[in-house]
Amino acid sequence: SVKKRVVSGVQPTGSIHLGNYLGAIKNWVALQDTYETLFIIVDCHAITLPYDTHQLGKATTDTAALYLACGIDVSKASVFVQSHVPAHAQLMWLLSASTPIGWLKKMTQFKEKSRKEGAEDASVALFTYPDLMTADILLYQSDFVPVGEDQKQHIELAREIAQRVNHLYGGRKWKKLGGRGGSLFKIPEPLIPQAGARVMSLTDGLSKMSKSAPSDQSRINLLDSKDLIVDKIKRCKTDSFAGLEFDNAERPECNNLLSVYQIVSGKTKEEVTEECKDMSWGTFKPLLADALIEHLSPIQARYQEIIAEPAYLDKVLSEGADRAAELGDVTMRNMHQAMGF
Ligand code: ADP
Ligand code: NA
Fold this sequence. Notes:
Family: Belongs to the class-I aminoacyl-tRNA synthetase family.
Organism: Arabidopsis suecica
CATH class of the largest domain: Alpha Beta
Distance between the termini: 32 Å
Keywords: Aminoacyl-tRNA synthetase, ATP-binding, Ligase, Nucleotide-binding, Protein biosynthesis
Strand order of the largest sheet: 1-2-3
Bound molecules: adenosine-5'-diphosphate, sodium ion
Strand content: 5-15%
GO cellular component, one term: chloroplast
EC number: 6.1.1.2
Structural class: mainly alpha
């Protein structure tokens, strides 16, 4: 039987942080045994906001190395760089012809990010980015897309675009979709984790942890040193309630830090509730910092090994791109035919 397919990616903008890891990458690792998986370093998404051209290449390599360091196994998964497979941009153009402007205008991420840029100065790419993300997913006839909570709206859009294209152009049975006959495009489903879907900033407790937040203090990067992790946790925002608890709407920081502790320590929510209910922040913070360091140290060690072997990484990415191009080619041929080219 044909394995169901999983596709996801992270942008190589700045450092990969705990939100990317807990919301996305950590969950990819669990999927690679069951599904055919493609994990992309989405560099074409990294140019929608002003960026440093001298950093893009290094950030791309670092992100790839971190995927492997986090446990992505290239004997099971395909890992590749988006710009190495031109079909992403080509399919995006075709999909954009079936995307009403009004659908893109509804995207909250665009509204937030373009407001920061100044509405009229934001790039067209920032506006059409969800179309490229849709192409990333549909190109491979993906069944599932594991993402954090912030991407839910973009996946919903991808589903709507797929349905619209199927309706407009997919009037006959398509047989060559890698053994997945049926409609022109599969309708993808998001996979959003139970815990870790929305890791919050360490400094304000209200916004999500993000690469683009100006303060590095607001996030734990996967490659932060032990001292830096201790320092960031020591200084992170807390509250003055007694004891620690999950799910109190008045204590978003507390819920966030306990959730992070729960995942990195591998404990259950019940165990953490019991362990921490009478704790002070002064007792909990070193415990959390230690758990983070213990969880991230092996990832950092593997990262150092991988990054020291650029020829190996190049080979992995080149093989990944070949596999992706082969799969994407089937979709592109069907799409061109369906649209009358
Ligand atoms: P960022 O928003 O940090 O630039 P990306 O847009 O590259 O990150 O997102 C890569 C993946 O990481 C997506 O699946 C996204 O949902 C997830 N992600 C990003 N930030 C967080 C967060 N704070 N909590 C949980 N998941 C997140
Ligand atoms: Na994001």
